[in-house]
């Protein structure tokens, strides 16, 4: 299995004692899959992503990529955040090259790699522009190009479209599907947007809250993936199943905390 998460638990020490954020997380993800983890606030989505990225370490359990235990960040994992995290004084080209520069990649090589991925995301014509000259969707595409420029094995996405308006978000969804199909990269995305998860992913892990646990794994099989599928009954069935599941576990968490 390409990405394996085994019995992962994450605790934090607080002034009120130990807080368990993630409990017994188990996931198995094949190369080339588009996976979404969906959950409400308190389900530990971002904490889970940090474990995969190597930005934090599990209290118990482990994360492995191609059999290698994740113990720190690495170029095999590209990261895209909700906010674009672009440097406003740098051009689009320089922003796309930045990760490669940190890795010590020679200037000529990083220029070629970054330029290639700017073309992949459709922004070659804006290479000399500054971020302030771009729309929100274009800024996020620069951030995706920057993540892809290091040619990672997996792309990790932390609610990447949460700050976009509805129209731009829909355009970015179609862009991501096209990008995924063209590059065959493995994508692991967290989101609280149920419709977004159903539209984009082949499998969804639904997370319960307090502590975050995998409540259900759902295989998504849609007849096609374009805007019209959202009017299809099977899309509504997946959406309603997930909504009911998250609502049920949210109510359980509230009762447990009362």
TrEMBL record:
Domain ABC transporter, first and last residues per copy: 3-234
Domain of life the protein comes from: Bacteria
Entry-linked InterPro entries: AAA+_ATPase, ABC_transporter-like_ATP-bd, ABC_transporter-like_CS, ABC_transporter_ATP-bind, P-loop_NTPase
A Gene Ontology cellular-component term: plasma membrane
Cell location: Cell inner membrane
Membrane topology: Peripheral membrane protein
Family: Belongs to the ABC transporter superfamily. Nitrate/nitrite/cyanate uptake transporter (NitT) (TC 3.A.1.16) family.
Protein name (record): Nitrate ABC transporter ATP-binding protein
């Amino acid at each position: 299995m390409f990405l394996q998460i085994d019995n992962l638990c994450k605790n934090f020490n607080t002034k009120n004692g130990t807080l368990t954020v993630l409990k017994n997380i188990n996931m198995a993800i094949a190369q080339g899959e588009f996976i979404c983890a969906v959950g409400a606030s308190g389900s530990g989505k971002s904490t889970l992503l940090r474990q995969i990225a190597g930005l934090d370490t599990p209290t118990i359990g482990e994360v492995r990529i191609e059999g290698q235990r994740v113990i720190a960040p690495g170029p095999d994992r590209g990261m895209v955040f909700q906010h674009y995290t672009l440097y406003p004084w740098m051009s689009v080209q320089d922003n796309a090259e930045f990760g490669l520069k940190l890795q010590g990649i020679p200037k000529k090589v990083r220029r070629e790699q970054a330029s290639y991925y700017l073309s992949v995301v459709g922004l070659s014509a804006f290479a000399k522009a500054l971020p302030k000259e771009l729309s929100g969707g274009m800024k996020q595409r620069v951030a995706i190009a920057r993540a892809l420029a290091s040619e990672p094995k997996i792309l990790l996405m932390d609610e990447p479209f949460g700050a976009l308006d509805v129209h731009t978000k829909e355009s970015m969804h179609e862009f991501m599907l096209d990008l995924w199909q063209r590059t065959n990269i493995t994508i692991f995305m967290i989101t609280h947007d149920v419709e977004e998860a159903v539209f984009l992913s082949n499998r969804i892990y639904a997370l319960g809250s307090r502590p975050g646990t995998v409540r259900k794994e759902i295989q998504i099989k849609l007849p096609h993936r374009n805007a019209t599928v959202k009017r299809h009954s099977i899309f509504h069935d997946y959406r309603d199943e997930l909504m009911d599941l998250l609502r049920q576990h949210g109510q359980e968490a509230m009762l447990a905390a009362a």
